[in-house]
């Protein structure tokens, strides 16, 4: 199963970053290309089992279910339910850690998926750079 990964350091504390990122429904606020996002049943965005519906480029629909949210580990995990990309069985994890010598936040976004052999490398790069990397770059700007 191919995996993708991206990470960055933000000029904010891990607590500040986690306070913002733990909202599973706010991806449209900071993720480039996501036009709108919402929790489908209108419930809390930090409830394990909630589903976020995202509208991206060309009105593409992404649906993801929150499978774990851990305030002690400053992380959440999700599975991809619907995605216009040629992947199956996708999942992701977003995690924040303190950089102890500077007081900054280290953020990593990772995930995996299944795909046809001819699509694996392109999808690995799409997730690593086009999704995870682009999202983390946006967070760097947000947290200045």
TrEMBL record:
The residue stretches assigned to a coiled coil in this entry are none
The source's superkingdom equals: Bacteria
InterPro entries xref list: Polyketide_cyclase/dehydratase (IPR019587), START-like_dom_sf (IPR023393)
CDD domains per the UniProt record, alphabetical: PYR_PYL_RCAR_like
Q: Which PANTHER family does the record cross-reference, listed alphabetically?
A: BLL4707 PROTEIN, SRPBCC FAMILY PROTEIN
- Name of this protein: SRPBCC family protein
The species is Actinomadura macrotermitis
């Amino acid at each position: 199963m191919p995996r993708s990964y991206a990470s960055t350091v933000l000029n904010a504390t891990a607590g500040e970053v986690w306070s913002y990122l733990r909202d599973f429904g706010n991806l449209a606020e900071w993720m480039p290309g996501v036009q709108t996002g919402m929790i489908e049943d209108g419930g809390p965005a930090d409830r394990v089992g909630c589903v976020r519906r995202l509208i991206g480029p060309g009105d593409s629909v992404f649906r993801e279910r929150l499978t774990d949210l851990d305030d002690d580990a400053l992380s959440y995990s999700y599975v991809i339910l619907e995605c216009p990309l040629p992947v199956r069985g996708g999942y992701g994890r977003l995690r924040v850690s303190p950089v102890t010598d500077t007081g900054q936040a280290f953020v990593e976004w990772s995930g995996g998926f299944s795909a046809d052999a001819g699509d694996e490398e392109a999808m690995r790069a799409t997730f690593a750079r086009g999704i995870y990397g682009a999202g983390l770059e946006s967070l760097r700007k947000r947290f200045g």
